[in-house]
Amino acid sequence: MNHMNLTRRSFMKITTSAAGGLAVGIHFPSMAEASVEGAAAEINAWLTIDPNNIVSIVTPQTEMGQGAFTAVPMMVAEELDIPWENVRHVYASANRHVNNDNLYTTTSTGGSTTVSRRHPYMMQAGASARERLRVAAANRWQVPVDKVTAKQGWLTTEHEEQGTLQGSYGEFAAEAAAVTLDEEPAIKAYGDWWLLGRDVPRLDVPLKTNGTATYPIDVSVPGMVHAAAMACPVPEGRLVSYDFEAVKDMPGVIAAVELEQVKDVPAFTDLRSGVAIVADSWYQAQNALAVMPVVWDYGRGASISTESQMAEAMQLISQPGALVLNEDGNVGRRLDRGVNHDAVHGIIEASASQVTGEVYYRPFETHATMMPPCAVADVKDDRVDVWTFTQDIARSLNEVADQLGRGTENVFLHQTYLGGGFGGGYNMDVHRQAAAISAAVGRPVKVVRSREEDIAQDSQRPPVWGTYKAALGEDGLPEALVTHFVGDEKFPAFSQRGVANMPYLVPNRRHEYSVVQNHIPIGYHRAPGANSTGFIVEQMVDELAQAGGWDPLEWRIKMTEGNEPWQRVLLAMKEKSGWTTDMGRGEGMGLAVVASHGTVAGCVATVAVSRRGQIFIDKLDFYINSGYVINPLAAREQAESSAIWEMSHAMFGGLVIRDGRIVNTNFDSYQMMKMADTPPEIVVHLEMSEDQWWGGLGEPTGPPTPPAVANAIFYATGTRVRSTPLANAEL
Amino acid sequence: MSITLNINGQDHLIDVDPQMPLLWAIRETVGLTGTKFGCGIAQCGNCTVIVDGNAVRSCNTPVATAAGKAIRTIEGVSENNDHPVQQAWQELTVPQCGYCQSGQIMSAVALLEKSPDPTDNEIDKAMAGNICRCGTYPRIRAAIHRAAELSKT
Q1: Closest in A369, A675, A680 to B133, CB measured
Q2: Is B39 on the interface with A (CB under 8 A)?
């Protein structure tokens, strides 16, 4: 391997990998070097073993705080059977993946799937390497392979003549690399694990306590210049003209680059119409961009506002829904559980005990990753190097190649840590901006979005309105239920997931859906559907329980009879939470349960409301049934994180649209939870999670948290809060 | 304009616009990238550094006003990543995405230097300028108490 210093920063190096690609290696200050140069043998694309028995495990997923760079090595190491202390993680080469038939299956990082959906082939990679090491040892020692054990980095056999023979994996790595197995081994089942299921601190933690973790914004290459870019403040609008003459003599300014949009309406990650200023420093570029005269064609969105969408939604929701959705969220003629779908309205109208819900509302929310989107691109005639905010390195590599009209062979997209992701790393054009600008100016360039540009241009979580009508039977339980939700056209699932397919066994069910006009880009978020709809469904359920004279916990237990994952959560809540709806005036306990990402998550919130109407969340108590948990420590971290993430939106968030543009584009006006707002007590119960399935854990505690809090506010004050931010509620 | 910045005990003579925020002088001119950009309007605390003992948002501090003062960044907290605050942060696995943590740590270090055993209320106030989008606040709070404990021994 040839090392060369890319920057003066000692921890970042460019190395030429065996496959000829570039990989940015990150040193662990607290650990030994990842591998001995030139001597490590690649057993398969997932791992190399060096003569000192240090195993470097490749992670194709991105690390944004959720723990992929620990979880993936854990899954491989479990099967390989190597001491955790010997494990180093290395970034996957996106170039190698893309140009070798998707070598790592996928590099996508979202939907809480890294463990739940990807474990089979990651564990297989470790198992396969272990078996090949055993075969290599059997060949050298001339013993049958079943006489060779592989355990904790050592291969051992009892030889008939020579006694005990032992060698490290590292000693057999080169031979193992040449072994072909007749049959791939089966991966281990739960119960046979030695590493998975233990609390393992994430490998990236020490790098994040001394400022040495590298994010795209920290990358610097020789000769690099800096760019600030802006797209039309009204999404879907186009650049008409700009006056570079007016700013070209400002300090440090080098050039203006027009960003050309190819399609009329850009998809997700297409380059959007806009303009960038390139300068010696980002501060200079941003200063010039801020004062450069720019003319925009604002397009159709300029007449849309929060008020106009609200008025349209309220009009739509007062009428029968335009579409009827089935349990998958698709347009269909029936719900599986509805015995007579078309007759549901009639049953409700004929009923003596109707319940008519009011309208619930969740506004737009934005990612606001702590690192504003940014990318570095170095476009040369014979190769392209890019470092960017992405949750899918292969996809971004392909997009850079597309942007430049090149093949993928000589495009290298390098992993770094991400300063948050939350789905935002899928909906980006910042890497296209960097590539386009670098190509235009012929120099490496770093593009950093101002926070205002980030929030104005981000792909947002869409607003949702929801209401319902029900008829109650003699037992007080709903006999028929119509739900009607209003949302965005592009991602109906974000506005109705968890509603059409809610688990409550209402005999006659119908779910209707309508869409509002919207030009604000919509994209993946952290549990975008379940977070919005959970707030509505789980308060609706409390209203129905109350109307029928049922305790809300008993109602849920009754209405999910036979549904084992939900029953376990609900019964655990009953047993452990000290559940009561009567805490006295000013205090309340509320609960909510939402299934998302293959996991059922329940929250019991204890809330105090002051006489002035200020809300204090005293405790959040979580009951999570996610099936297997490979790292309980990381699971707890994610449970806390997704709960506070979504509670931030519910308490303080909400984007405001005026004249087609987002108004609150920085943290003075788009606020989120801070230390003082954080509940003093957060308890995470995971102990019921040993069922035979794999659920995700990066998102599921978000959705039940705000409705649990809102339900608690109801029991504390008698007031039901049907929209967020809760902090604005009059209590 | 020539300005001398004393960062982590070392003088750096730099030639910059005096109005340039200290953040960009630290990151781009001096090349210490542990201090992060988050909002540019002193609302998120990602850019927190310690100037003459006080936690300061460097993103809206003109570089000229920091001349001659003792500036500390995350790189100057300890040689070996073992300041009590760093130890506590590691022990309680505080950072997730990690991007805000340089700022969180600098605010915590400044707090503990003034108040070695802070109450929850003091922590709320001292950390009020630091946003963590991953929501690591419960662990930050616990880690500040733990760092106070570690500092005593």
Answers
A1: A369
A2: yes
Interface of A with B in 89-128 (CB under 8 A): none
Residue A172 has pLDDT above 80, yes or no: yes
Across the interface, of A65, A448, A667, the residue whose CB is closest to B134 is: A65
Which positions in chain A touch B130 (Cβ < 8 Å)?
674-675
Distance, CA of A161 to CA of B73 (rounded, Å)? 64
CA distance A13 to A35: 14
Chain B contact present for A448, CB below 8 A: yes
Asked if omega into A725 is within 30° of 0 (cis), the reply is yes
pLDDT value at residue A369: 98
Helix (H), strand (E) at residue A537: helix A528-547
A214 in Cβ contact with B76 (< 8 Å)? no
Which residues 9-28 in chain B show a CB within 8 A of chain A? 17, 20-21, 24, 28
Q: Which residues on B lie below 8 Å from A418 (Cβ)?
A: 97
Percentage of chain A modeled with pLDDT above 70: 92
SS (H, E, C) A551-567: CHHHHHHHHCCCCHHHH
CB pairs under 8 A between A and B: 180
Identify the pLDDT of residue A334: 42
ipTM value, please give it.
Answer: 0.98
Which domain, by its residues, includes B103?
84-152
Q: What is the pLDDT of residues B90-123, one digit of tens each?
A: 999 999 999 999 999 999 999 999 999 999 999 9
- pLDDT at residue A269, rounded to an integer: 86
Is the domain of B141 the same as that of B123? yes
Q: Do B40 and A421 touch (CB under 8 A)?
A: no
Distances (CA, A) of B64 to A409, B17, B33, B58, B76: 47, 8, 20, 12, 21
Q: Which of A12, A31, A208, A668 to mutate to test the interface with B (most CBs of B within 10 A)?
A: A208
- Rounded distance, CA A50 to CA A90, Å? 14
* B88 shares its domain with B47: no
Q: Examine the domain organization and report whether A249 and A323 are in the same domain.
A: no
What range does the domain containing A432 cover?
216-300+373-448
Contact A451 B46 (CB under 8 A): no
Is residue A238's pLDDT more than 70?
Answer: yes
B88 & B64 share domain:
no
CB atoms < 10 A from the CB of A11, how many?
Answer: 14
Segment A486-519, tens digit of pLDDT: 999 888 888 888 888 889 999 888 888 899 999 9
- Mind telling me how many Å the CA of A286 is from chain B's nearest CA? 11
Q: What is the pLDDT of residue A455?
A: 98
Collapsing DSSP states into helix, strand and coil, what is residue B94? coil
pTM for the predicted model, two decimal places: 0.93
Distance of alpha carbon A599 from alpha carbon A594, whole angstroms: 8
Q: Does A4 score more than 70 pLDDT?
A: no
